[in-house]
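hey m, so remember when u said the tokens were messed up on ur end? i reran from scratch. heres the input so u can diff it against urs
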Amino acid sequence: MRFLGLKRIGVGLVIGLLPGLTALGESPQDWLGGQIVDLTHAFDEQSIYWPTEDGFKKHTEFEGFNEKGYFYSAYTMEAAEHGGTHIDAPKHFAQGKWATDEIPLERLIGEALVIDVSEKSTSDRDYQILPVDVMEWEALHGEIRPGAIVLFRTGYADHWPDRKRYMGTADLGAEAVSQLHFPGIHPETANWLANQRNVGAVGIDTASIDYGQSTLFMTHRILFEKNILGFENLANLEGLPARGVKVIALPMKIRGGSGGPLRIIAVIPD
């Protein structure tokens, strides 16, 4: 079986089949057709959230051996939708567009490509990824296909979870928003990707697809008006090739949500 077969069956069935396939001697890597790379930061008390949001909280309800003599653990958690590795549903900035639970599975699974702008963004914390950056990538690797998942590597995942190095400030609260400095996608690039390439999703290894100093969030607004998804705070993009990657990006299915925690993986074909 190859990766593209995932589009034809339910994800629950996919996950349920994995143990059986392994028992039959076929590993998940074999079944998916390549090396699996986790693009997700683990959620814990150090996870980075927007300065105006409370961070991730995990509370222990019980952990240990109970009165019947067996080990048991259970926890509760608190978290805003938009923090850690997460999805921005189009509803986040576009009225009437997809909420988290309304996103078709076909838009969460597919071909991905990686555009590396780390050299430019490392020297300029406020760098905005320009259409020319994408065109230069296309000159080397070919035209972006409709529906593709476009992942931008700025290199800022290397700073996780150091809030000051990652976000430009360690301060919290509304007054800290004006102090944010990290790279993002220029609105002109968002418009070009939406209208010239008809992409399905964009992702980035920073806290937002708009750069830190944005006040109007035009990149969000342009993309989400077209029901183009956003993946933020990605990890491990440095291990991916520029083209030929497959991505599975499954968010918590929050009814009516504007986003949610995301477990996203890439498959590098053999």
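this time it looks ok to me. Helices lie at 11-23, 28-32, 118-123, 131-141, 163-167, 187-195, 218-225. if urs says something different then somethings off w ur setup not the seq
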